[in-house]
From TrEMBL:
The species this protein was found in: Pedobacter frigidisoli
Required cofactor(s): L-ascorbate
Presence of keyword Acetylation: no
Keyword annotations from UniProtKB, A to Z: Dioxygenase, Iron, Metal-binding, Oxidoreductase, Vitamin C
Domain spans labelled Fe2OG dioxygenase: 100-196
Domain of life where this protein originates: Bacteria
GO biological process, one term: cellular response to hypoxia
Name of the featured protein: 2OG-Fe(II) oxygenase
Entry GO MF terms: ferrous iron binding; L-ascorbic acid binding; peptidyl-proline dioxygenase activity
Amino acid sequence: MEKIFDCLIDSYIDNQVGVTENFLSISLSAHLKDNLISLFQNKKLVNAGVGNKIIVNQDKLIRSDVIYWLDRKHNNQYENDFFDLMDNFVLHLNSTCYTGITGYEFHYTLYETGSFYKKHIDQFKNNGSRQYSMIMYLNANWKIEDGGELRIYHEDTEQDISPSNGKSVFFKSSALAHEVLVTNKQRMSITGWLKI
Ligand SMILES: O=C(O)CCC(=O)C(=O)O
Ligand SMILES: [Fe+2]
């Protein structure tokens, strides 16, 4: 596990965006995806807003995904396995990089066909607690023609990342603008932030 954590952190240090395959095991990813699909079928996912609770602007022209917050209180085995993994990652990150992360928040995200999230920065203007953004993808057999890439805007280049199964992406929430390109297929993930 530490090897995968180091791979993510090293690629973050080299390129401002950490990317690693197999952050989630095939079985954990499959269980989380099944859980997400059943929550979606039971109409538990809600429109994602833009901004935080003080400035909520549910603007479907900016983003059209639906979300559901993970919580240990759900007593769901796989959500808890995911939180155990994140606890280990945060311990490793804090001890190797002195990041001082004290908390996190994660939600399931589902983009239906035709959905997107326009260019934005994750850290709120009125609250700087989000330090690092992290996304884990739950899409087996994702193909180029399925679209839905995460596009990251570097100073002079754009980086497109396909949302393929088990992959994790990690970057500083205040630093990099990014967007989710229109997806041609249902696109599932867990998105979250490490906080101070
Ligand atoms: O799903 C992704 O690739 C990125 C999602 C995102 O940018 C966000 O939820 O803030
Ligand atoms: Fe984002």
